[in-house]
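Quick bug: Probable membrane transporter protein output formatted oddly.
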Amino acid sequence: MILIFILFIAMGLLIGILSGFFGVGGGFILTPVLLLMNTEPITAITISLLYTIGTSLSGMFAHLKMKNVRWKEAFIIGLSGMAATQAANPFVYFLNQHGYDDAVIPLAYILLLSYFGWSLLFRKKTKNSKGKPIKKWAIVLLILTGAIGGFISTLLGVGGGFIIVPLLISLSGFHPKDAIGTSLLSVLFIVSIGFITYFVKSPIDLSTGALLIAGGLAGAQAGAYMTDKFEHAEMKLLLGMLYFFTAISVGMKLIGFEVLGMVILFIFIGLLYIKMAASLITRRKKIRSS
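Here's what came back:
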């Protein structure tokens, strides 16, 4: 029993670091991991949303200190996302009742992760908005961004940040760090209403989520701190690669190779942590020598 507690706390910690670093809530990694562990899709979604509440809250406070949050935009995205969660919830239960959720939800993950991985790695950069006042067309883009993020959040049990961050960068011209901080605040609204909606219909054992959050709170703070130590292009590259490898691991589950999919994902995440640690060490050496 103690080993299970330690496992979930460690899982929450490691995913929390990536959550704070990339501003993506952590759900887009946690839900596939839970699915690979053969957790029921709706249960995995509900646990993931609860976890994302904790990591988003922790990461948001860290980014507030670094002034990476654009409040007005975050509220627009959050409110439109909350409305979209209520449209997605009945759709998920429809899939569950007809036995389609085991195939549709993983497939949706693969398609979305592949697309956003491609958009971050290969699409041309857009000009930074540099904090200019929101124009009417920009508000429409923000509303659409929130609606897409909210719908996908409830469909897949994610914060929506893994969609909101690249959309803010590619469509609204956000600076990557501003996109991350703003995403975390808007995601907090989205996942809170999403979790409540699921929990009322399908209650879960809250102890699992509590253990994950316990590790995730510390991890999100550490990850948010590290964003200030990396170049923007480097962060986009790492996030794009993480999307692709997560998509590959979920694809392995669809064809019956859950263990292989988990191994692939864990190996890449391990290499990602090594890369992050190496970059931090290199930068500290440069600072000391200068």
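Actually, after a second look the formatting is fine. The chain has one domain: 1-289. Closing.
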